Every structure is written in structure tokens, then in C-alpha cells.
Amino acid sequence: MASASMDKEKRSMSYTALSDLTNQENLTHHVCFDEQHTYVSYQQFQHDVQRVCGYLSHQSEVKWALCFDDSYQFAVSFLALAHAGKHIILPGNHQPAALTELSEHFDALLHDDIIQVMPCKHHRHYQTISDNVMSVLSPLELGNIRLTLFTSGSTDTPKPIEKTLQLLSNEIEQLEQLWGDKLDATEIYSTVSHQHIYGLLFRVLWPLCAGRAFSRTNFIYPEQILSHQPEHKKTLICSPALLKRLADHEGYNHYQMVFSSGGPLAIEGADQSEAKLSLRPFEVYGSTETGGVGYRQQIEPTSLWTFFPSHKARLNIEHCLELLSPFIDESQWYPTSDYCDLLDNGQFMLKGRVDRVIKIEEKRLSLTEVEKRLMQLEWIDEAAVIPMEEAKRAVLGAVIVLSDTGNKLIQQGSKGKFWLKLRSELREWLEPVGIPRRFRAVEEIPLNSQGKRQMHDLQQLFNDVND
Length: 467
Hints:
The chain is an alpha/beta fold. It has helices at 42-56, 71-83, 96-102, 165-183, 197-210, 222-227, 240-245, 267-277, 367-376, 404-412, 415-426, 455-463, and strands at 30-33, 39-41, 63-67, 87-89, 108-111, 123-125, 146-150, 160-164, 187-190, 214-215, 234-238, 257-260, 282-287, 291-297, 305-307, 312-315, 320-325, 329-342, 347-353, 357-360, 363-366, 380-390, 393-402, 438-441. Helix 4 crosses helix 5. InterPro entries: AMP-bd_C (IPR025110), AMP-bd_C_sf (IPR045851), AMP-dep_synth/lig_dom (IPR000873), ANL_N_sf (IPR042099).
């Protein structure tokens, strides 16, 4: 471990391909740092990958799940598994029940102290691996190394998505081409998990390839984002939820770059980023399946998106986006569920998802449209609409965050009168079957660590309280 002096010569910004990341001889930069700004050198990182790879190469299990709180230990284990020729599994949730549910997808588990209850018989704690056997690291054949991630969208059951490291490498190279000059020699701080594709790429693999030191631990609270003042330039890898919460806290901090992904960013979050972090974030739109698709800096909610330069795009008969992308498969068009308008100069406008269109009483309803109409009302800041079953029929339920005006109105009268007034206003826009029958007012719409709404959590709000 090196001390905190970080001179620019040691931070040479030469890009190293993912395939050659751990077999270089003359790299002298720092890989990461802890909360005390104690740094880990590239040589130490290389040694640790050789040590863990030496252990894994002698294990018969093929599919290894990684569950780590410490991003450095995660990075070492990730590269060690790749060099050992194992299939890497990244569960998005380390809770015991969730891990047990996913255990059919892996043979063994490598972890740090974040795991307390083991979901499988074969597991190993990172700190207990000795350096009795050290592996010699050759360049990786990225196309042969498989990785499984899991979706974390609105459905209850995580869906496994398999990729190769070559696809990740293609995306990392594109990220560096787009933003490498802007990031320069910044240090990387993050609020998002490396267990999902956004955090895996932006907070771990891209910094490793580009020679930028990253923090071993996450910022968890808005106060940390606003108060942390290191000596060096810094970049923030953030979620929409935390950016929006900056409004509730005093302070100002300067970041070289801010990124946001994992869910939709409200315009208020973009405004707060500019006011408190010195610039509007670069939003990255994509998914576990597609990787990055496009990006923008949001000036207004209708600000256009720009495709990554390597992508080709077209619309299918339903006006949904199809992609030809080196992050997915350069030989086949990939269909998405996103309604889009394609414009000139590689730009596009997102208009919602086809899988958020449902049928109630034979009428097609867009849940996105209902949410939009709710948020047009001065009484409501945020809305999440879900389909529900009530008395053997389908209805809509709406979880809403009231504005100050809405809170004052509901305090002046009864909740029942407020809901009636709200439904009356919605009739100007929506057919009767499209007006929510059940409402829950909350201080915050529940989100997971990636800033995404979970169907189960929204449903639970209605299960916990009787109308």
C-alpha cells in the first residue's frame, strides 16, 4: 500500500485494454484508495490478482458468484476469475433470501464481510486466500470469458443476462473515446453498486483500464457527496435518486464530471447537480441487456438523447427502437421495448416503454401516460402507477409524492375529498378505466440501490394499509 502523495507522473493516463489489464510490467499508477486516502499500487493489484487466480485455478467449481462491499477486492476477484477461466456471476442483491433464490445459477461464492448467511456449500472469504500458489497472467481471451448479470427492473424475479468480457471491453473503449479527455486524471467516487452493469463499468473496469484511481467504498448519503473535499480532481458516478436528494441539504462541491444512470433522472435532479456539484450530469440510457445506448445533458425534460457513435438504430413496426451495437451483437439487430422518435445527427427522443402498456376492460392504457398526467397536477411531484387486482377486476394504483401545495390542500379537507378532486381533474385527460382507483401518498417513492422502482415494494404499500 502506498501513502497518500499522488503525483501526476504516477497517474499516466495511458489506456490499457481489458485483455491486458493485469499483465503489464511498467505501470506505476495507483488503482484505488480507501476512506483515509491510502492508495493501492498497480503492482499490489497485480500481485493480488495472481494470488487469487492461483487459488481459483485449483478449484473444480466453474460458476462463481461475487458478492463484495469493497470494490478493490471485487476488482481483484473479478479479474482473477477471468484469468482462471471461470464463469463470473454477479447477483444484484446480497440479501440471504435473494441470494438463495439465485443459487441455482452458481456453484460457489467468493465474498467479503457483506455476506453473513451462505446460500451455498462452497464459498470462500477473500481475506482467507493465501499466496501459496501464484498464477502467471497471460492476456485474456475476452470472447471466451462469460459473465452473468441480473436485471433489476420492475418485475419481481431477476432475469439472468449473459455476456462476454469482449462486449464489456467494447463499451469501455467507447466510454474512454467519448469522455476520457474530460475526465483527465480525476479520481472516481461512486454511489452505485459494482454488482450491476452501470457500476461495474463506470466505477471499476473503466477506471482500471484508464489508470484512474477509484474509491473502494461508496458514498451513501448526500452529505458525503457535498462535503468530500480531497486534494485531487474528482468524478462522481451517481444514481438519479441521490442527485434529487441534494435539494434537502446545504453545501456545494466541485466535480470534474458527474454521471447518472440506472433509472430516469427528474429535471430537478439535473438542476440540483448543476447548482451544487458545478455541472449538469451526463445521463446514460441503457439496460443490462443492451449496455449503454445513448447519453444527454438534460436542460429540460424533452432534451434529446445522442446514440453512442458505434451504434446503428432503426424503428420497428410498433415504433420501438432496434439496435445494431458492439455492446450486444454486431451481426444482429436487437429489439427493445422503448418507444422512440429518430432524429437527425444521431439523436433520438424517448417516449416510454411498450411493456408499460396494459389492457383493462379491453382498452390499452399506458402507465407512463397516467403518471405523466398525475405529475402535471400542481399537487403532485412524483407518481408511480401499477396494475392491481381488486374484486376480481384489474384497476390502477398510484403511489404519489405530494407537493407543498398538495399537502396544504389535503390538510384543509379530508383525504376522501382530495382523492375525488384529483380524479375529477384526471378525467380531463384520461378515460375512466385509466384513472387510478387506489392512491398512496408517501414522502419518497421506494427505489432500489440502482435508483429503480421495484414492483414488489410498490405493491406492498397497498398491502400494508387498508383503504
